[in-house]
Amino acid sequence: MSFPVFWISMMNDRRLNGLTLSEMRRALQAGEVSSVELVEAFRNAWEEDSSNEKPVNGYVEFFADAAQQARKADEARAAGGHGKLLGLPIAVKDNIQIAGRLTTCASNILQGYRAPYSATVIERLEAAGAVFLGRANMDEFAMGSSCEYSCYGAVRNPHDRDRTAGGSSGGSAALVAAKQAPFALGSDTGGSVRLPASFCGVYGLKPSYGTLSRYGLVAFGSSLDQIGFLARSVEDLQLVLSVAAAGVDPRDQTSEKTGFENAGPLRARSLSGLTIGIPGQLVSEAVDPQVLQVFDEFRRWLESAGAKTRVISIPVLDACVAMYYIIAPAEASSNLSRFDGVKYGRRAAGAENLDAMYEKTREEGFGPEVKRRILIGNYVLSSGYYDAYYKKAQGVRALLQQRMDAVFEEVDLLASPTSPTPPFRLGEKVDDPLAMYLTDICTTPANLTKSPALSLPGGRTSDGLPVGVQLTGRRFCEMTLLETAYSWEREHAG
Ligand code: GLN
């Protein structure tokens, strides 16, 4: 394939794997590059990094047939095909099913399990021509905030290899940050797309509950789970959203019609007329000073771009981590009861009877954090404690929803840090579950209220560590989030 002169000079500046999805799309359409070349660039980046003394460890599998998928896409294009994502490479978190491929949720219990069908989101991406690069590392069953609870070993933060990438979609975020993938699917139950986006310095979108079908996403907390995206540009988030959110999925009763598939190209918007609320509890002295500083600069930018900002108080917000760590484990304990050695994946050998086989399989198959969640979940659902914990948490969740509805009568968006701290060191919180759980203070509210939320790379600490800023909107107001982030990106990217 011959390259026009401008393209070659551009490639000297930025290797192919440094392009965003949208840039690749334009280059593919102009015939300046092939999908096979793109896939090879990512394979090379991954292989090069794998020989590093401290590899990122973002892929648990790079698909051997990725180049073959790309070749098919190139052939389809040559034959006049024009799918919206034709030939564009995407990495997929290891809890989203792709028919015929392994799906293990980074757990020993699912070793050897192959997906019998594809998730609806995967089907839609595939129909639009996407090429899947591989499976991204994660915390086991998406439980964690640091990507250290994986049977494949921890993910390292590309910005500082001794620090965590955030979790649970840490593999997805680290691959995008390390330019080993231009875009990745993650999942977000309590912040798992936004927290790693913040730690790795990329964009992370958790759509509203109901925007994307959950069919084929391995269930964790069914009333909270949502597939989300990690990207290096806002335009990329919108591009994939327009494909993945294309209408109601009859196989997921909670999916809704959003119209996002018809959204036109993103426009930078004036922020005048927008009122942005800043929840006081999320910018308190409990937050790291360097994070507060980055957030403060972001707030000043919002105002310079025409928005009005004001600090507000949402009383129930203080209870979000507590609520989340009752509701999510309760739902998880029920969802994970299906992994019993009979239906999926691995079965322990040498058990004397059926009960012993269940026990041994689960004992050997699940890691410590997953076991902790199952125990907590069963405890809060047990007849003696149901009213005191689970029912109470559901009541407070309803109260939070009312309060948030009232807040969104007065403000258009909420802005806050994404994480109370910059990326922490590997090992720092892994033996202290409570400290790990408190990392989710800024992200759990959007899951509990089913709101869309986006983390954008707001700035850096004095050591050069990424710090994210989070925008949260009314349910199904994804476009306002994307346009605001896009305006910010246009002034700050590069
Ligand atoms: N850190 C949270 C947890 O451990 C969120 C996980 C997620 O969003 N999947 O449950």
List keywords for this structure.
494 residues, binds glutamine, alpha/beta, two-stranded antiparallel ribbon, eleven-stranded mixed beta sheet, globular, Amidase signature (AS) enzymes, 13 strands, 16 helices, 38% helix
Portion in strands: 5-15%
CATH topology: Amidase signature (AS) enzymes
* Spans where pLDDT lies below 50 across 5 or more residues: none
Strand ordering within the main sheet:
1-3-2-6-8-7-12-13-11-9-10
List the quaternary state of the chains: single chain
Overall strand count: 13
Can you tell me the overall shape?
globular
Rounded mean pLDDT score: 95
The CATH superfamily title: Amidase signature (AS) domain
Please tell me the CATH architecture by its name.
Answer: Alpha-Beta Complex
Helix share, percent = 25-40%
Radius of gyration: 22 Å
Largest sheet: 11 strands, mixed
Order of helices and strands: HHHEHEHEEEHEHEEHEHEHHHHEHHEEH
Question: Layout of helices and strands, plus pairs?
Answer:
Layout: H1 5-13, H2 21-29, H3 35-50, E1 59-62, H4 66-78, E2 89-93, H5 120-127, E3 131-136, E4 156-157, E5 160-164, H6 170-177, E6 183-187, H7 194-200, E7 203-206, E8 227-231, H8 234-244, E9 275-279, H9 289-304, E10 308-312, H10 320-335, H11 354-365, H12 368-381, H13 386-410, E11 413-417, H14 433-438, H15 444-448, E12 453-460, E13 466-473, H16 478-492
Helix pairs in contact: 3-4, 6-7, 8-16, 10-12, 10-13
Bound molecules: glutamine.
